[in-house]
């Protein structure tokens, strides 16, 4: 296990990627739960084979890759389907996350996970950093980025913990309703803090 783990989370459209990309430019190893979630269902993977066996091969595109949008629509309002899928994917994702954390070699490592709190991944972290924006801005940014419907964005937000719950779990909060430069300035401050904490944590 990497020595000191900072869990980075935030609601949809909050700017987690912009934050983690900047940590990476500072030389910090990033373990991204979303990237891993895509890897475990890549063509030929055991998880993808199970999904096709369970739901049918209409969920594959012409290249044999998973049509994630079709799968999302299939499970979104079906609790039984969602439960089955979570039982398949969560252990595989968690195993891969822990594997990558253990190979991290930077002074501390950032674990980026939209569902850090919902999936209890914060128990692997020494620190929880929340990227926070007003909910109206989350909706606006996600609509611009994903060309999806407001209804779907709100449904995704409803499936995540509330902004209040997220902030209550935070050790550190970065407000991301300003410019990119303002976001990076806040991260620079935290970077120094995390390096200090990681250093003293290793010596305890």
Present the secondary structure layout.
Elements (H helix, E strand, L loop, with lengths): L4 E5 L6 H10 L3 E4 H7 L6 H10 L12 H9 L2 H25 L5 E4 L14 E6 L2 H12 L3 H10 L3 H7 L2 E4 L4 H24 L1
Helix pairs in contact: 1-9
Short structural summary:
With 204 residues, the chain is an alpha/beta fold.
Q: Could you tell me the strand content as a percent range?
A: 5-15%
Spatial arrangement of strands, main beta sheet:
2-3-1-4-5
Shape: globular
What is the highest CATH level, the class of the largest domain? Alpha Beta
What is the CATH topology descriptor of the largest domain? Answer: Rossmann fold
Q: Write the CATH architecture name of the largest domain.
A: 3-Layer(aba) Sandwich
Ranges where pLDDT stays below 50 over 5 or more residues in a row are none
Structural class: alpha/beta
Tell me the number of structural domains: 2
CATH superfamily of the largest domain: P-loop containing nucleotide triphosphate hydrolases
* Distance between the ends: 16 Å
SS element count, helices: 9
Number of strands: 5
User: pLDDT average, as an integer?
Assistant: 89
């Amino acid at each position: 296990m990497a020595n000191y783990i900072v869990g980075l989370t935030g609601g949809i459209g909050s700017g987690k990627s912009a934050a983690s990309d900047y940590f990476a430019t500072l030389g910090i190893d990033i373990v991204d739960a979303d990237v891993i979630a895509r890897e475990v269902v890549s063509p030929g993977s055991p998880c993808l084979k199970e999904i096709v066996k369970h739901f049918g091969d209409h969920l594959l595109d012409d290249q044999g890759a998973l049509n994630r949008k079709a799968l999302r629509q299939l499970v979104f309002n079906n609790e039984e389907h969602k439960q089955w899928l979570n039982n398949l994917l969560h252990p595989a994702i968690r195993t891969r996350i822990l594997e990558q954390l253990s190979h991290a070699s930077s002074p501390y490592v950032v674990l980026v996970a939209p569902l850090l709190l919902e999936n209890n991944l914060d128990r692997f972290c020494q620190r929880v950093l929340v990227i926070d924006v007003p909910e109206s801005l989350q909706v606006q940014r996600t609509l611009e980025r994903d060309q999806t419907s407001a209804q779907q964005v709100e449904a995704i937000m409803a499936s995540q913990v509330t902004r209040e719950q997220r902030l209550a779990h935070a050790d550190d909060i970065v407000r991301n309703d300003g410019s990119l430069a303002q976001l990076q300035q806040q991260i620079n401050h935290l970077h120094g803090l995390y390096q200090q904490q990681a250093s003293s944590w290793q010596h305890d």
